[in-house]
Amino acid sequence: MTNTQQLLTNKFPQLDIKLNEPLSEHTYFKIGGPAEVLVTVKNTDDLIEVTQYCAEQNIPVTILGGGSNVIVSDQGVEGVVMQLTSDQVKIVQTNLDHSARIYADAGAKTALFVRQTIDLGYQGLENFLGVPGTLGGAIYNNAHYLQELLDKFLLRVLILNDRHQPVWLTKAECAFAYDSSRFQQTHEIILGAEFVLPAGNQETSLAKIKTATEYRAKTQPLGEPSSGCIFRNPPNTPELNRLFPQFSAKPFISAGFLIDQASLKGTREGDIEVSHKHAAFLVNKGHGTSQQVLTLINKIKATVLAKFGVTLTEEVFMIGK
After folding, report:
1. Which of 93, 201, 274, 316 is the most buried (most CB within 10 A)?
2. Residue 95, class by beta-carbon neighbours within 10 Å (0-12 exposed, 13-18 middle, 19+ buried)?
3. CATH 3.90.78.10 domain range(s) in the chain
């Protein structure tokens, strides 16, 4: 046992703790070396207690949501990796216009949370039912579907501050933008969030979900190990408008389209391949590694830059050594 493993198992014998746990079993990409210590907590109190203790002992803490938008190092992650599984969803307040404030824990699966809001009689989040992973991760990345961003319906976010106290941040304080939030710089731990949703019609919502689900199935490699879109859609430019006038009215241009136009679909590095279905997705065809992913990412970025003068930026987050 390492010193960190000894400290955590002695201090928290009541918690779900795994040592040297392969994180490939906890990521959609099926990639990742071992977590020195993996702690699964079911409530905020346990999360606070563990993070406080780790801070006192100078043990690094990494929060892992559903594992859908990350690339975990083949060498693994030192210190403690924590997963929050609390998934409470509740109506906080109903308003005179029949809208409602709805709270959800960060550990809630995004898809299940969206379905619960529909079952409760509210609308607005239907397009996000296909977002993988947990709500905390979706907020961290301000998940999007086409041009719609998750923060559209967010009211405020509950976080753990640097004094290990739960505090609320307003939507404005969260600095949301396309695929971005303050949390990507501060790394504050997200505990939960409140949304304001208008009253809906379940039949209409389910029809909207059906349309979005069918579109995803047609355009994304949903049946293969992947980490979702690897790249953010870059801003449109005069040069891109000249080359691709069909997108001239759009503020962003699809990264997948540019990669496709660069003839990179099907390009492989080991077992990692540029998807034939959606070129912004990399898929694991067997025993891919994080190093193969990074090598292929660099190859894609260099090719797109050379052909179109566009520097692609990763949408996924790198975790580990």
Report:
1. 274
2. exposed
3. 221-314
Phi, psi of 234 (to 5 degrees): -80, 155
Region(s) of the chain under CATH 3.30.465.10: 89-204
Whole-structure pTM value = 0.90
> What residues have CB less than 8 Å from 110, skipping those under 6 apart?
66, 128, 129, 131, 132, 133, 134, 135, 137, 138, 143
Q: What single-letter DSSP state applies at residue 42?
A: S
Q: How many residues does the chain have?
A: 321
CATH class of the domain comprising 221-314: alpha beta
Fold of domain 89-204: 3.30.465
Fold classification of 9-84 (topology level): 3.30.43
Cα(209)–Cα(109) distance, integer angstroms? 16
